[in-house]
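$ ./design --mode recover --in tokens.txt
reading tokens...
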């Protein structure tokens, strides 16, 4: 099997230990960053150096293909504009790393620590972040596609203006996360937690929330077109001026939520608990779908009719 280190091709016969190759590549890359003679940008492929201890490493603009450094310590490292393809960083420590403008394709990050990491404008596709720990991480304007965040910890993560497509969030904790003006499409949230999460002004198109706890979440002026909330807890949420066209709330409880100005034409409130919802008018309800399984704001059963509320 051939591979490249800093642009130099070698074959297996002359190949030194992977750990030694890794260390030399990192050393040459640091020289390249400092524009010293003999420095070469790291382009590392098909390497298994194993667990590495490299806190505060300087790897900006480096390239990694099929590199396995699971459980390595890269805390506080500079990895801006780095590229990672089909690598294994499971259980790695990436806390407080600068990952601005980095690119990740089919990378294993399960169990990795990304707490307080800077992933602004990063691009992730097909990555596995199951059980990743990323409280307080910053993902502003990142582009995330087909990633798995199952059981990940994203408490108070900053994801404003982030684009998230076709990604899964089973059992994920998004409590207090900031997603205002984010754009989510075809994402699946199952038994996830998002208390006090901020989706204000966000676009959530054709997403699925199933048995999620979203009490106190803010969806003000958000576009929830085609999104379903099935058996979710949406108590004390802010849905003012939200676009609810084609959204479904079967089995969900919205007690105490505010819905002044919400656009309910085509929304499906069958099976929803709207008792004590504030600001929801008869006109809004008549524009939506209700039936005898709907609990109206005044506590009576639906369907909604003029003069009932």
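writing sequence...
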């Amino acid at each position: 099997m051939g591979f490249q280190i800093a642009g130099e091709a070698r074959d297996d016969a002359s190949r030194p230990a992977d750990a030694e190759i890794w260390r030399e590549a990192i050393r040459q890359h640091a020289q390249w960053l400092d524009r010293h003679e003999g420095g070469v940008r790291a382009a590392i492929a098909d390497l298994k150096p194993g667990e590495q201890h490299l806190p505060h490493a300087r790897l900006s603009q480096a390239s990694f293909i099929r590199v396995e450094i699971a459980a390595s310590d890269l805390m506080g490292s500079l990895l801006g504009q780095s590229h990672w393809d089909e690598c294994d960083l499971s259980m790695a420590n990436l806390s407080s790393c600068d990952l601005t403008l980095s690119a990740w394709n089919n990378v294993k990050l399960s169990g990795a620590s990304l707490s307080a990491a800077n992933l602004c404008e990063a691009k992730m596709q097909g990555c596995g972040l199951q059980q990743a720990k990323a409280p307080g991480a910053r993902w502003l304007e990142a582009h995330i596609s087909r990633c798995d965040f199952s059981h990940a910890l994203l408490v108070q993560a900053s994801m404003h203006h982030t684009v998230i497509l076709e990604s899964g969030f089973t059992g994920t904790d998004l409590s207090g996360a900031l997603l205002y003006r984010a754009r989510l499409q075809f994402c699946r949230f199952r038994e996830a937690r998002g208390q006090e999460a901020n989706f204000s002004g966000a676009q959530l198109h054709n997403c699925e929330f199933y048995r999620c706890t979203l009490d106190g979440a803010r969806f003000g002026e958000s576009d929830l077109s085609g999104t379903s909330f099935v058996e979710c807890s949406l108590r004390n949420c802010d849905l003012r001026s939200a676009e609810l066209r084609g959204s479904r709330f079967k089995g969900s409880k919205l007690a105490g939520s505010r819905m002044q100005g919400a656009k309910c034409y085509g929304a499906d409130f069958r099976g929803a608990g709207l008792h004590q919802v504030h600001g929801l008018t008869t006109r809004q309800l008549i524009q939506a779908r209700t039936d005898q399984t709907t609990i109206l704001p005044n506590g009576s059963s639906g369907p909604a009719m003029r003069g009932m509320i």
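exit 0
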